[in-house]
Every structure is written in C-alpha cells, then in structure tokens.
Fold this sequence. Notes:
Radius of gyration: 19 Å
Helix content: under 10%
Structural class: mainly beta
Shape: globular
Strand content: 35-45%
Amino acid sequence: MTRQSLSExxxxxxxxxxxxxxxxxxxxxxxxxxxxxxxxxxxQVLIRPWDxxxxxxxxxxxxxxxxxGGPLGTCGYAxxxxxxDQVWATDPDHPRRVRLVGFDGTPTGVTLRPRTDQxxxxxxxxxxxxxxxxxxxxxxxxxxxxxQQVTTGTVVAIGxxxxxxxxxxxQDQCELTAINRHTGSRQALPSPCPADSRPxxxxxxxxxSPDGRTAAMFCTGSTPHPVLYLLDLTTGRRHxxxxxxxxxxxxxAGLVWSPNSQWLxxxxxxxxxxxxxxxxxxxxxxxxxxxxxxxxxxx
Length: 299
C-alpha cells in the first residue's frame, strides 16, 4: 500500500511473485495520519485505520467499498484470522475484546478476551491467525483455542511454525531461543546483533520464512536506525543485509517472505519495493515506477 496522505488517494498494489504480474487499485484519501491495518483475504483486502475514520474493502475487481459501520467499520485494530476469509476486529461494545468476523462483517461467534495485564501490551498478528501480545513481563499468544505464555522475555521474530524469543530482556547480551509452535521443543541460538545492540522486540518484530529456516530481524542500539539481519535457524550464522530501511513500519508491516522462502520483500527508505535473495543477500529494487510504499502484506 502507498504512503498515506490526508489529501491524496491511496493506492493498493498487488504483486504475484511467481509471474511478476503487478496490478494497482486506487481509493479515496484515508482521513488518518496514524496506523493502518492491511489485511489480505482470499478475494478482497481490508484497509482499516486505527483512528475512528472510514476504512475500505477492496475486492479483486471492482471499486473500493467504504466502511462506516458494523464490525469492520469501527475504530481499533484488525488482524488476519485463522481462515483466509476471516479477520479479527475490535468489538465496539467491548473495546478490550476482539471478535472474529468474515470479510462481509458477519460475526462467527468467536471472541478473544485478553486479561487486564495483557490488554495493556503491544499487539501484532501471531503469524497463524491469532494475536501476539507483548507485555513488560512476557509475551502471550491469544487464539481461539486458548492462550499461552510464549516466553517471560520478548518475541523478536514470528513465523507460522516457530517463535524466536529473547528470554532475558534485562541483560544486554542474551542467547535467543527458537520454539517450535507445535511441539514446544527449544533450540538455543546466538544473537545476530553486534555487541553494542540488541534484537528489537514486538511490535517491530522480525519474521521467519515459511520453511522455518531463516529469521529476518532487526537490531537496534548501535545506529540511529534499525539494522536488518538474516539468522540461519539451523546453523546460527548471521548475515547483515545492506539496505537502508524506511523509518516507519519496519516490522511485520514492512517484511514479507515469498511463499518459497527464497525472497524477502521489504521497503527501503525511499519507499521503493526491495527484494533480498536469501542465499546471496543480494538486494534488488523492483517496480521503480510505483509510488512510494508504506506497508506490505501477504496471504
């Protein structure tokens, strides 16, 4: 999605990596300067500003549909649901809850109710249709079947099969722990960050490739801006990626893996779409004719 402007229309760009096909659709200006949820469904895309202004639903073909009421037209966060045609949306009657609805706004009857201490935490999508909440005393995964504490520290990268955690947030240097989300097995890994920096935690968490082999994550502290590293979760080897990243949305909203795990897509400081080859770490700028981008999402 292109960068926001209170006076300029937004553009939603769809890219199919396998074919290289690029299409674009435009919508009215988003009357917000704050955060925006970008949720990709099976046949449509939800653009939901966190502020109390209208959002939009964009089908694969056709015009943007303005959302001014109902479950998808209210203030607050929105996250991908467990199915491609579902989304978590803030419950207007109970702002501390999120409910699972279809892209047509139909409620499923499923609700997430964070505890009081978890509600105050920072939230991101958990990579598997749930919600990750990072608090000062640990990270929690909330999903339809229940809730679990992922770590007493912080989550620094999120994947569909793996968590990458930093279990001792009070120390400057700390080994990372990869946790298999299905079996609970754990593997200690060295931090990819230089001695004078540390991994950035949620909501600027990194992301793990679909095959579970590589974590893309940020280190902060040694430079004014986050630095991107690739960490091999099998060997523990780290690789610095030489790309100047944008200052906004440098977390999950700005890092997307290709389905085959070969390419990591991100946005550079100029708003240009950038592809990073996992094996060679070569950085390529794509579709230079596109307007400046601000967010990426995948399905």
